Amino acid sequence: MVVPIIRSSLRARITDVAYAIKSIRKDDPNFVARDLMREIEMLRVAGGHGGIIRLFDVYEDDTHVHLVTDLCEGGELFDRVIARRGGSSSSSRGDDDDDECVDVPCLTEGEAARILGQILDALSHMHGLGIAHRDVKPENVMFATTDDDSPVRLIDLGLSRGHDGASEGPMSRVVGTPYYIAPEVLRGKYDKSCDLWSVGVVAYVLLCGYPPFNGDTTRRTYESVLRGRCDFHAEDWKNIGVDAMDFVRKLLDIDPGRRMTARQALTILG
Q: pTM of the prediction?
């Protein structure tokens, strides 16, 4: 279940700096204080990186807890790529059982590489701190400004978790978004490499326009993910270079042990 969130903004009178406010109702039946405290802790630990949204303050009133963060004025990656191609931002995001998978407009290889490089750099920082994001998707990548070449920031660390693979067992809680979730997460035994699978799905979407694993219900999408067969249909990939396809394949390796790390993927992007 999802906790309803109110998003707004404010501008400081003295500094004239604008901030975003994420407000969570405390009386919502799905609200779990422990999960919110973990998100706050993850933001405080990882937020020193320019590619991750920063947390400036936390306060509460009788009804809500409010998180004050960077204001990303350029909107979501999901919405921007749709708007650029004249599509509709109301198309399916794959969160509900009855959602249909709707094609998303593509970016050029250069544009995709610039965005993916920033996502990977942010994840490399998080992974170096022993933190797995666990919900990497275009909706959780925000443009800092409205400029075409705006930097991007990774947001929503609500499902993030500290995990030291050297001293503790694999994570087991099934979390994430159906189209972008890694197969090992569905099997209940995974580590931070699940984030690289999600980046691979994002890369696939940006380059060809639709996710590699999908279905007309969440269950069927999960079945597609678990099969792990990533096809590069000739008609949709005819203008994409072999190196780009190989990059996606290495991220979407069904074996987490063979999958690239964030740092290795960054090296390939140069």
A: 0.88
